[in-house]
Input
Amino acid sequence: MSRLAVYDSNAVVISFAALSLKDGRSEKFAKIEAVGPAYIIEGPGADGQTTRCSTNNSVKKITLTFKGSSSENAKLAAIHQADRLAENGAGVAPLLIQDNNGSTLIATDRAWIEMDAEKEFGVSPSDVSWTIFAIVEPGPTAFIGGN
Output
């Protein structure tokens, strides 16, 4: 029998610094990618031996994109500005991305905004993308799944 999957973008929960981010999402509003490989290869040596080395890299790059008219841009700008004005990483905050349609879950208490987003003006407001870096340890809170 054929399988039917159901998806609703409103069922994707995004929260940063305890603020829900759902207003004015762009068509593609969240991108999660690893920053570097999980393993590197050493070799092969003269005898053909190859060693697989763990990098222990747990950094993810998350890009959140909102419409230019979205109020979420002001929230993220305020978080980033407070981080830049405060000392000792005040802008490091919890991040949650949870797809309630399926099994994807990214959860950490160590995420921060990389830099101010770019903003363009024209006939209509352009999308605004925010880059967030996060330390997401392997395990049940770092899972890219399907639905």
